[in-house]
Design brief:
The structure is a homodimer of 600-residue chains. By secondary structure, chain A is an alpha+beta fold. Chain A is 52% helix and 9% strand. The first copy, chain A, has two domains: 23-186, Beta Barrel (Butyryl-CoA Dehydrogenase, subunit A, domain 2); 200-235 and 243-371 and 397-529, Butyryl-CoA Dehydrogenase, subunit A, domain 3, CATH 1.20.140. In chain A, strands 1, 2, 3, 5, 6 and 9 form a six-stranded mixed β-sheet that branches. A three-stranded antiparallel β-sheet of chain A has the order 4-8-7, with no helix packed on it. The longest helix of chain A is centred in the middle third of the chain and has 36 residues, at 250-285. The complex binds flavin-adenine dinucleotide (2 copies) and calcium ion.
Amino acid sequence: QIFDFEDERQALLFAAYHREASPYGLHTSMFIPTLKTQASEEQQKEWLGKAQRREILGTYAQTELGHGTFVRGLETTATYDVERKEFVLHSPTITSTKWWPGGLGYTSTHAVVMARLIVKDKDYGVHGFITPLRSLDDHRPLPGVILGDIGPKFGYNANDNGFLRLDQVRIPLKNMLARFSRLHEDGTYEKPPHAKLSYGTMVFVRSNMILNGASALAKASTIAIRYSCVREQGMVQPKQAGETKLMNYKSQQYRLLPLLSHAFAIHFTGFYILDMYKDLLRRLDGSDFSTLPVIHATTSGLKAYVTTVAADGIEEARKCCGGHGYSQFSGLPTLFADYVPSCTFEGDNWVLFQQTARFLIKSLKAAVAGKPLAASVAYLKGYRAVGEGQKSQAKSGQDLLIPQVQLKAFEHRATRLIMEAAQLLETDRKAGKQYEISWNAHMIDLIRAARAHTLVVILTAFIERVEATTDEKNKRVLKKLCDLFCLYNIESPFAPCSSEFVEDSYFSPAQIRMARDNVHHLLSELRPDAVPLVDAWNFSDAALESALGRRDGNVYETLYNWASQTPLNQKAAKEGGVDVEGYTKHVKKVLEGGVNTEPM
Amino acid sequence: QIFDFEDERQALLFAAYHREASPYGLHTSMFIPTLKTQASEEQQKEWLGKAQRREILGTYAQTELGHGTFVRGLETTATYDVERKEFVLHSPTITSTKWWPGGLGYTSTHAVVMARLIVKDKDYGVHGFITPLRSLDDHRPLPGVILGDIGPKFGYNANDNGFLRLDQVRIPLKNMLARFSRLHEDGTYEKPPHAKLSYGTMVFVRSNMILNGASALAKASTIAIRYSCVREQGMVQPKQAGETKLMNYKSQQYRLLPLLSHAFAIHFTGFYILDMYKDLLRRLDGSDFSTLPVIHATTSGLKAYVTTVAADGIEEARKCCGGHGYSQFSGLPTLFADYVPSCTFEGDNWVLFQQTARFLIKSLKAAVAGKPLAASVAYLKGYRAVGEGQKSQAKSGQDLLIPQVQLKAFEHRATRLIMEAAQLLETDRKAGKQYEISWNAHMIDLIRAARAHTLVVILTAFIERVEATTDEKNKRVLKKLCDLFCLYNIESPFAPCSSEFVEDSYFSPAQIRMARDNVHHLLSELRPDAVPLVDAWNFSDAALESALGRRDGNVYETLYNWASQTPLNQKAAKEGGVDVEGYTKHVKKVLEGGVNTEPM
Ligand SMILES: Cc1cc2nc3c(=O)[nH]c(=O)nc-3n(C[C@H](O)[C@H](O)[C@H](O)COP(=O)(O)OP(=O)(O)OC[C@H]3O[C@@H](n4cnc5c(N)ncnc54)[C@H](O)[C@@H]3O)c2cc1C
Ligand SMILES: Cc1cc2nc3c(=O)[nH]c(=O)nc-3n(C[C@H](O)[C@H](O)[C@H](O)COP(=O)(O)OP(=O)(O)OC[C@H]3O[C@@H](n4cnc5c(N)ncnc54)[C@H](O)[C@@H]3O)c2cc1C
Ligand SMILES: [Ca+2]
């Protein structure tokens, strides 16, 4: 068994809800999982215990200054010296410098270094090497190892993302990760039994990014919704007593409640995927690789979709808090800046969607050929009706609340887009164009198809979860959230890609109006549940670190108190209300005419 | 004459291209302009020269802890003491604390404080008061004045945005801004001649925010496009020699070239609006207030649209740079964090669009009544055809490149949305609903209408600019950019609100496909011009502050060198490659088992 699954699941769930960027993050999130999934038993015996006891601290060093997405292009070499039974790790160029790994700068003692395996001048491609970086005595870099911090970043500054240059560094043969492929002493290379076996770790990491995304988006929604139920600004009626809570503005509801519905949708999808993953592990134990491709494709698309939506959503929630959202005391700027690299790491989103697209194109072919399909793409069997231009049969707003009607719309969109992309590739193929050139030409169509499929997965998970809910009250409110999630994505001109539901006339203008009326109705219905729904996430004040998102609503005093406590204000208070240094060095000179503050 | 217009224009253009968040920014951008537009001649004599010579440093203090958008709700009072001919400025509650004004914390000596004028218990609403805050001798806060910095923010941290509490602070009668309304010694109040006269400053500031938005978006596009033409990653063909430049990926083109087209569109609109503003000033000099409402409505919508697009665009450009975009060395995180409050200050975008919507609803009524219309809304005369469900007549991709066809589509969308919103309000009115309640219920429809109208203004400005271009080569490439701007907004599912072109079947599925083909064709055509087009903005390396956006393309060495120069790396270099303090205090303890790094 690769993992003690329940252990990891609990740990990662906890982490998803509480973790901050930490220099030790990679040790837990990548170094240990990599040892668990890719190290042989003997290797685990040597390193895993030490790592778990934190006698060594590790990171995962793949990305180089010159290469991230295109892993095959990595330049770091691990040349096998058959005489000494050692690898010589080397950074041949400046672009081969490892760049970005978390905790690499001044924290880690070890790294899994991804490098090209070279044996007798033959290049076997990129493999992982357990590489000691620093002395365990005094933390000094080992001979030939040049390490440092890559400098200030948007966020994540508590993490010493680092660089690494290797100058002919020798490590023993046994340090090459050997669970799947291995090198024998004499230099004979043994291939892994299944090309995609090492996808396991990726799938696991990406699954957890789904829950992480839900949590980040839920945090932001919690802050913005709580604040919007405290802050009063302006009047909805001319002579009302007192002012209106922000949450009573239609625009504020329209911006925030769909975000919250997305957080729930993604959260339920996260669990749905963890169940798929659990099933995958059971199968892999029995050498059944059959579900690897579908899980890999699904989690790739989900990672891309979820991180995009969560990043954009956090920023929208921040804007919903007006000026105070821009203060670090709102907690939102840091949440955003620390979250947003999720769109880039573990696979850039625009690249990941293409991996999903590859699988979808194959699945469509299978559907057309009448071959069996994975459950999550079984809807492709309906390709014929889609090709004939089927239209939604919804006759009323009520119809649009029927789960089958909703799912059918999402499935129609995905099927249509997959078919259109496949058609474009096929036309090019017939015209003799090279597949890869053709792929690039139609990349946007392919990415749209992948995104649309991903939304089918999410809506399916959400609907299943609503149906599985037994408590009647919860079920009613979850159903409303699910309807809002679904219909907002159909009707809202502000929802990315909503035009895809109408550009082929699947929905008529009248149906869109019905969907829109439903959405506005749902916003009013959900308005009173807004606070209970964010409270349900149960974030502590400490986890939110937000003056605006406090449970007790004591926003203004908190802002005032926190501001009074800044070092600058404390210092100035002692100096008669003047920042003496700033005044003497700068302001005074300006006032005395010595400095020009104008831009010209 | 209110302004020496050419002077201001040059200064603000320069500032738009080079300005950073500075503690002296508000002095130039708000304090001086407010004196110029709202101070009487005597007041200007007393304060303007001093301000221009920077013998005093001022800010504009309107926002309070409890009020931003809803200016009428401000709580700070200025009570007139008729005996002493003084105002008593006072902050009665914690929420009345002034909060956010730039440079207020420890820089400014003066502020225009916006406060409710109270004379003999009568409340005359919010007026501006020139208020000395600090001693010009030692910079200490004057009696009754409590000042400080509001704490860390997302960006803008070079600016000491501050708070201000006033405890019965006395200032002379002559300090109330008196160009438009004035208070006589005996407490008689004189109203301004035109209710919206003070909009002048707002219009000016917002116009400049348009150019500023263009510049910010152009900077981000420049960095991302230059980098995408240097960085190579992966292969478009399986066995190509070397790797592919990012800019050759279709998705990268699709993400970046439309952004660049928006920067151009917004830039030309900025000049178009400055011309409108110049005309306004001429009219105001002759007491002609007729164009004030249309300019106010237009600049409100433009400010809202432009700042949203620029903020989102900067972040998209950052993501296009992959991991290195997340480094501060890319210049993009700071550009984003410093730019994004533009969506909130000078009027929150979701509120500003509503001001535009008010004007549009009125203009539609005027159109229906056959009354004269301002030029920019003259298209509303076509409301009847729109109401009858007109469809685009474009028969080919070629047709979609005809400026009249393009404009007609944008005008159709705007007219339809304005009509729909008006219809919703009208139905409610007939049902006896209160106007304001009805406004709130249909806020999203109103905002969509305002946004759609704003795009008519921008497309008009862009088309006019293309047509006015005499150089044939420039004209050809600008025409392509204009087509890309227009058609991307119509066909792209990723373009906000593109569904509005199809949700009423104005464009058929076939026409959308034609638009999409055009866009893909334009991307290929513009690809070779990408670098010349960003070079045309002529940003210096110093202005971009970006390792990725360098003119010479020397990306990797710059990243490496800049990283080597960080204080942490410099210090560690002297300590044998170890961050001795961090190691001793933290890492060593973890390795020795004293600290648990796990989240649980
Ligand atoms: C905070 C942070 C932490 C990180 N931690 C680690 C770590 O611990 N260990 C580690 O090894 N790495 C780490 N990374 C690096 C990260 O994995 C890479 O940044 C990521 O893989 C993207 O690669 P890149 O930066 O080279 O982007 P690039 O591959 O250069 O991509 C740049 C742009 O080109 C586009 N593009 C590239 N290829 C294609 C294509 N085929 N089709 C279409 N578009 C394409 C992308 O969409 C993107 O817009 C981290 C990065 C960050 C930001
Ligand atoms: C960097 C920065 C610099 C600043 N500099 C200055 C300065 O120099 N001087 C100064 O006086 N102020 C300054 N401000 C304050 C700024 O002007 C206010 O933040 C701005 O006016 C918005 O007001 P608010 O923060 O009270 O937001 P709120 O009015 O509380 O708005 C919060 C949310 O409610 C929504 N909302 C509010 N009213 C409505 C409505 N009627 N309809 C629909 N939605 C509504 C908004 O859309 C927003 O999403 C600055 C702010 C920042 C961030
Ligand atoms: Ca330990």
